Amino acid sequence: xxxxxxxxxxxxxxxxxxxxxxxxxxxxxxxxxxxxxxxxxxxxxxxxxxxxxxxxxxxxxxxxxxxxxxxxxxxxxxxxxxxxxxxxxxxxxxxxxxxxxxxxxxxxxxxxxxxxxxxxxxxxxxxxxxxxxxxxxxxxxxxxxxxxxxxxxxxxxxxxxx
Length: 162
Hints:
Layout: H1 2-12, H2 21-34, H3 40-52, E1 55-59, H4 70-74, E2 92-96, E3 103-105, H5 107-127, H6 136-154
Helix pairs in contact: 2-6, 5-6
C-alpha cells in the first residue's frame, strides 16, 4: 500500500528528481544495486548517462581488430567485460553520448544496464504525458514489472541471447 501511495503521489506531479519518495526508494532498492560494478567510476558514469538519456548499447560485430590500442584494453574487449573486469565473451558494447570510446560488456552486465534503461524509459514516458492509461493502478503494475526485471538482473539472472 505504501509503494502504491508513493507512486500515486509521484504520478500527480511526475518528476525525474531522485529525491522524491517514490524515485528515492527505486534508486535505493533497485537502480543503485543494479548499477554497482567493480569498476565503480564507470558504473557512476553509466547511471549519469542513463539519467541524461545519452547511453548507447549496441551489439558487437565480431570483425578482427587490426590493432589493439592501450585505450581498448582499458575499455575491455570482445573477451573482457569493462564493468566487471571478468573474462567473458562480450556481445555488446556501450558508449556515452557522442564519445568515440566504446566499453565492451558481458551479457550479465548488459542485462543489468538495460533493465535500468527500460525503467527510465517508462518513467520518462509518464513524465512527458505519453502514457495514455488513465488508471494509476495499471501504470503502477507496469512499474512493478520493470522493478522486478531490475531485481532479477541484479541477482544475476539474464537471458542467454542478450
